[in-house]
Specification:
The chain has 235 residues and is an all-alpha fold. It is built from eight helices and no strands. The structure holds zinc ion (ZN). Belongs to the HscB family.
């Protein structure tokens, strides 16, 4: 019975939302940004490359510079490299950056600047989304510390936890009423809140193994949340 349940559970991993997994490597698309860490402006040759000034525009000719591939999401979004993130500040920074680099503002500029603005804009979106949600933020932070959670690691989970997840999935499969769905949603929300608090504490104590274990649990609950969303979509 347990084996069957665990196997059924393993299949759930395939339903993880795209983006939580399969992120691009942290080194970013360095190859496609060749030469971008040059200290000189690509346009005027002045000492105003991405490592100078605001990192976006040449202080001399104001040409948009390519993204700095060594800059991580926390630095880009002007946040401390920590699990605790001020989401209001994060949103302001996102809006501020999009006002600087959004492709709409470059339609009359050179093809080079249009390409750079696309790249900046994608990076800013990615950084914002990653740091906004606790799960992706935690996974990213772990990755910066050299720890990744490979797919299909459920064999490492304790049986009690796997049974808890299976029970919720069964409840969800059987739920026929709005009230039943609401009840499941509130259980999952409470669990995610508890796990988010725990992972925050683990990061504060630099206990990355603990953080990894908690984030793995959060992935399971995130998968349940996705299934709740799907079930709510009227056929
Ligand atoms: Zn320049």
């Amino acid at each position: 019975m347990w084996g069957g349940r665990t196997r059924a559970l393993s299949r759930l991993w395939g339903l993880w939302p795209a983006g939580v997994l399969g992120r691009r490597p942290l080194s970013c698309n360095a190859a496609s940004l060749e030469g971008s860490n040059s200290a000189h402006c690509w346009n005027c040759g002045g000492p105003g490359g991405p490592l100078r000034g605001d990192g976006f525009f040449c202080p001399q000719c104001r040409a948009l510079q390519p993204p700095d591939p060594t800059r991580d999401h926390f630095s880009l979004m002007d946040c401390n490299r920590s699990f605790r993130v001020d989401t209001v500040k994060l949103q302001h920074r996102y809006q501020q950056l999009q006002r600087l680099v959004h492709p709409d503002f470059f339609s009359q500029r050179s093809q080079t600047e249009r390409d750079f603005s696309e790249k900046h804009s994608t990076l800013v979106n990615d950084a914002y989304k990653t740091l906004l949600a606790p799960l992706s933020r935690g996974l990213y932070l772990l990755k910066l510390h050299g720890i990744e959670i490979p797919e299909g690691t459920d064999y490492e989970m304790d049986r009690q936890f796997l049974v808890e997840i299976m029970d919720i999935n069964e409840k969800l499969a059987e739920a026929q009423s709005e009230a039943a769905m609401k009840e499941i949603e509130s259980i999952v929300r409470a669990k995610q809140k508890e796990l988010t608090d725990n992972v925050s504490r683990a990061f504060e104590q630099d206990d990355f193994e603990k953080a990894k274990e908690i984030l793995t649990k959060m992935k399971y609950f995130s998968n349940v949340e996705e299934k709740i969303k799907l079930k709510k979509i009227p056929l």
